[in-house]
Design brief:
It is a single chain. By secondary structure, the protein is α+β, with helices and mostly antiparallel strands. It has one domain (5-225): 2-Layer Sandwich (Pseudouridine synthase), CATH 3.30.2350. Helix content is 16%, strand content 35%. It is built from 4 helices and 11 strands, in the order ββαββαβββββααββ. The chain has helices at residues 33-45, 73-85, 164-170, 184-187, and strands spanning 5-8, 12-17, 54-55, 64-70, 89-96, 104-114, 119-123, 131-145, 148-157, 198-206, 213-217. Strands 1, 2, 3, 4, 5, 6, 7, 8, 9, 10 and 11 form an 11-stranded mixed beta sheet that branches. A hairpin with a 2-residue loop joins strand 8 and strand 9. The model has no long low-confidence stretch (mean pLDDT 92).
Length: 233
């Protein structure tokens, strides 16, 4: 497995998560991002103990794209504050099997996570445990294909709820292409998708030490994006 490192210094490590790779160790025992990156730091810096590495934000296993990790506690606290305050900016590109209501807009829902099934669903605002979920979107293209109408969209995540983009789009009959968990067009298939057409393509944040505004981009990768002609944004 190869995980591209986009940037690294004493405080942070920015890399590209491959689709199908778990962020942390799970019951599959497959190689995960945290273990891979700790080993990378251990070998590169020739240290005698397990390196410090903090997970700042997550990407679902079938989702690829840009991530930032903290290499010390001070950086972890600062980056976590940026996530909590909404100043860390995250953009995704996605292919949807359907159309959203407008060419651009905001989707606002309340989501409830089911820990037993590891899924989330849209519920009423007053449902106990429900959390507000919000994202902005722009439709970049709409295509007629053998698979029906597909929409290529750019999404800015405002909140970071469990499976948020996947749940919010599927609740509007425009689920993520290849998503066997939430998109009805794929939930009954026997095909095992190691990736879905959702990719974290742009990440912006303030460096925890230098305070420099940092921007990292990566165009979507993988077979699920072959159905569209990608354009940089």
């Amino acid at each position: 497995m190869n995980i591209p490192i986009l940037y690294e210094d004493d405080d942070i490590l920015v890399c590209v998560k491959p689709q199908g790779v778990p962020v942390q160790a799970d019951k599959s025992r497959d190689t995960d991002m945290m273990s891979y990156l700790k080993n990378h730091i251990f070998e590169n810096e020739q240290i005698d103990e397990e390196p410090y590495l903090a997970l700042i934000h997550r990407l679902d296993r079938p989702v690829g794209g840009v991530m930032v990790f903290a290499k010390n506690q001070k950086a972890a606290a600062d980056l976590s504050d940026q996530v909590r305050e909404g100043t860390m900016i995250k953009f995704y590109q996605a292919v949807l099997t359907g159309e959203l209501p407008d060419e651009c807009g905001t989707l606002t829902d309340y989501l409830l996570k089911d820990g037993k099934t590891n899924t989330s669903k849209v519920v009423g605002k007053d449902t106990k445990g429900a959390k507000k979920a919000e994202l902005d979107y722009e439709v970049l293209d709409v295509m007629e294909t053998d698979d029906g109408v597909l929409s290529y969209v750019l999404i800015q995540l405002i909140t970071g709820r469990h499976h948020q983009i996947r749940v919010q789009t599927s609740s509007r009959n425009a689920g993520i292409y290849g998503d066997t968990k939430y998109n009805p067009k794929f939930t009954n298939t026997k095909k095992k998708y190691q990736q879905i057409a959702l990719y974290a393509t742009r990440l912006e944040f303030e460096h925890p030490t230098t305070k420099e505004h940092m921007v990292f981009k990566r165009e979507p990768e993988g077979d699920v994006f072959d159905v569209i002609e990608l354009d940089e944004f």
